[in-house]
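Input sequence (250 aa), recorded before submission:
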Amino acid sequence: MWKRSPVLLKIRMRAILLREINSFFGSPVAYLVIALFLVLNGLFLWVFDGQYNILMSGFADLTPFFTIAPWILLLLVPAVTMRSFADERKQGTLELLLTKPLSVWQIVLGKFLGALALIVLSVIPTLVYVFVISDLGMPAGNIDLGSTAGSYMGLLFLAAAYCAIGVFASALTDNQIVAFMLGLLFCFAFFFGLEALGTSAGSTWGEWGMNRHFESMGRGVIETRDVIYFCCLSALVLGVTVDKIKCLQA
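Predicted structure, token format:
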């Protein structure tokens, strides 16, 4: 049937995705997020003295970047996703959006991919660090590209999980500030809270923490279990978000 045409599904998904991206870049949000991510990382890695300063570490690798970047994204991603559904509900446009010839899954995925695209655009400029570190190495080019590539892949999977959680938090309320706080809390709980709980309680909760799987990918060996973890976590949270929107629709 026409409604189930794969081509039509792609067009509808693209419309939502472009709507979200245009919404981000039509306001200062996108430029502010990209600037903050790059400036904060740049200051900690190259300017401020401390454990994250690459020039002071004496090692030609990007470990400090991949240590601090998840924490910066922990703050920025909820700020990006907080308006996904909260603003729609507050403005009364969610009901109008749900009357469009779109499935709830298409709407949720469109908003998720729009937020993820913005985060990916923020991360791409940091690839310059790879070339800088490579030139600083002794000899030049002395950098572990395997672990670096794995860490970048892990960072993207981590960002995807953050975005899924942030979109879910936004679906819970019509207040953007509350959505931001909930997204921040949920992302922190999955990234650090579960691992801390497993360490203190001596349980297996730490195995469900995002940080452990992110660090595993950073070793340069992409294991199937880590990829499955992030994919399943993102899909599960998005599925719960779809159920929440359907409840609002009812």
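Checked by second reader. Residues 2-249 form one domain.
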